[in-house]
Amino acid sequence: MAAPVSLPAAQEGSALIRVRSVSKFYGGAKVLDEVSMDVRSGEVRCIIGPSGSGKSTLLRCLNALTGFDSGAIVVGDTRVGYTERDGRLLPWTPRQAAAFRSRVGLVSQHVNLFSHRTVIENVIEGPKHILGVPAREARERAAELLARVGLSDKHDSYPIQLSGGQQQRAAIARALAMQPHVILFDEATSALDPELVGEVLAVIRQLAAEGMTMVLVTHEMRFAAEVADRVAMLDRGRLIEDGTARQVFSAPRSARTAEFLSSHLDPGGSRAARSA
Ligand SMILES: Nc1ncnc2c1ncn2[C@@H]1O[C@H](COP(=O)(O)OP(=O)(O)OP(=O)(O)O)[C@@H](O)[C@H]1O
After folding, report:
1. Which of 80, 102, 195, 205 has the fewest Cβ atoms surrounding its Cβ within 10 A?
2. pTM for the complete prediction?
3. How much distance in Å is there from the Cα of 56 to the middle of ligand 1?
C-alpha cells in the first residue's frame, strides 16, 4: 500500500478515535457545531438524535468520506484528512483517503456490494487487491467470515439473489475482511423489513461481544440501550449528551434528550418498538 496512512492498534481502553471541536457547514448551514467526543478501543458507541441532526455527516467525517471546516479527528495516530509535513498540514489525496477508508469499515443503509460479483468474490476483493493478501489465503479468510455472519451457503450467489438482511451481513463480512480497527454502521438496519432486522443486529451483537470497536448511528433505541457502552446525542449539529448507555437512557442530562428518548421508546412511536 503506497499511501502513507497507518492505523496502529490503540491500547485497550484508550481512545481509538478522538473528535475535537469539529464543525462543518453545508452552504451557510452549520451541520456540525464544535463536536467533541472519544471512542475507546473495544467500545460500542451509539450516536442517536433526530433526523437531520448531523449523525451521518459525523460518521462520514470519521471515515474521510467528507471533509470538515474546523477541528480535528484522530483515529489511532492518524490525523484524518491531513498529513503533517514540516509543521504544515497537507490535505490527503483521494488515494490517501481511500487507503484510510479501507481500514475504517463503513456499513450503510444502502448496501453497495458489487452486483456482478458473487458474495465470496465481494469479500475477497479488498484483501486481495488493496491489502495484497494471496488469493488462497483471502478465500479461506472470506469463507471463515461468511460462516461467522451465517452465509456459508451463499458463497456463489450474486447480491441480487440475497435478502436485504443477507446483503447487509455480506457487507459486514466484507468490511471485516479488511481487518478494520473500527467499523462504522450508518443506520444499517433501517432499510430492512422488520423481520430481517434481528439477524443483522445479532451479528452486530456478536461483534460487540468479541470486542470490535464500533460506532453505530441508529434509530433502534432498544438495541442502542442493549448493545452500546456509550451513547452520544446530536441535536441540530451539537453534541448535547455523552455518557454511558445506562446514564443516558435512565437519567439523561438534558430535557431535549429525555423528550427524544420518550418519543422513540414509546410503544406506538418507534420502529424499534414496533419491530420488537
Ligand atoms: N451533501 C449535502 N449537501 C447539503 N446538505 C447536506 C448534505 N448532506 C447532509 N446535508 C444536510 O446536513 C444536515 C445533517 O444531515 P445528516 O444526514 O448528517 O443528518 P442525520 O442526523 O444523519 O439525519 P437522518 O437521521 O435523517 O439520516 C441536514 O440538514 C442535511 O440536509
Report:
1. 195
2. 0.88
3. 7
